[in-house]
Amino acid sequence: MPAYFQRPENALKRANEFLEVGKKQPALDVLYDVIKSKKHRTWQKIHEPIMLKYLELCVDLRKSHLAKEGLYQYKNICQQVNIKSLEDVVRAYLKLAEEKTETAKGESQQMVLDIEDLDNIQTPESVLLSAVSGEDTQDRTDRLLLTPWVKFLWESYRQCLDLLRNNSKVERLYHDIAQQAFKFCLQYTRKAEFRKLCDNLRMHLGQIQRHHNQSTAINLNNPESQSMHLETRLVQLDSAISMELWQEAFKAVEDIHGLFALQETPQTSTDGKLLYQGVHCVLEVW
Q1: What whole-number distance in Å separates Cα of residue 129 and Cα of residue 110?
Q2: pTM listed for this prediction
Q3: Quick one: where is this thing mainly located (predicted)?
């Protein structure tokens, strides 16, 4: 067993030593070994800087699957004793991913990607084929520079929403990320991802209704929970209208109506006004 397993801080020191000589992957491996170790399942203060460094490396190397595994491990370590630490590392992770994507966007002249679905991204072979077919150098450079970061950011949003779903302790964070993801779809004109995001949120809501007896489950009769869900669905509706996805806009209206039906108390006049404004806008364009 490596010596750094005995003390987590030794793993962080070892990782920094690797980074000093430019070895990011070995540094990531060292930190992952500690995060997944059963020996260190009790949360300590040193866990948070280890996790932050781990996620920073995941972003730098675009290892979204390792970020997901690490976050689930960290959730198990800290959710009973320090849920705020989980919130902090998730927010830091997404901020890093967003900054990297913005940097790539700034370096690229391609503002709107023409790839229909990020889950079916081009392979090196298809990029080579496009080169043979006459795609200019700038287009290829833009595609290779920006698209991988947009894909990584999308995967990061989706993974974090799955991580935090149906957990009353991180409910506000869940909705903040959902709304960030809608803005991402709007900013990068990601219509396929927008539809998937809407489907995922509906699936999560269904899970809340089916598993309401769990200890950390969300109570949809709670006014604060109702307000957060409604706020997110209104962002969903507004985004669908802005992207001219009228079928998704209708579905968003149905989602909002379904939330109203779950409420034990009538919706406020403001809530109703916002809903009917959205319906009117959709019908007017349709």
Answers
A1: 20
A2: 0.85
A3: cytoplasm
Q: How far is CA 85 from the centre of its chain?
A: 17
Q: Which long-range contacts (CB under 8 A, 24 or more apart) does 169-173 make?
A: 169/79, 169/83, 169/216, 170/83, 170/86, 170/87, 171/218, 171/225, 171/228, 172/228, 173/87, 173/90, 173/91
Q: Residue 266 has which token pair?
A: 């009538």
Picking from 171, 207, 215, 8, the residue whose alpha carbon sits closest to that of residue 83 is 171
Whole-angstrom distance, CA of residue 63 vs CA of residue 65? 6
Distance CA 167, CA 218 (A): 6
Is residue 166 within 8 Å of 204, Cβ to Cβ?
yes
Q: Compute the C-alpha angle 74/68/189, nearest 5°.
A: 135
Span 39-98, pLDDT tens digits? 877 899 999 999 999 999 999 999 999 999 999 999 999 988 999 999 999 999 999 999
* Tokens matching residue 278: 């959205």
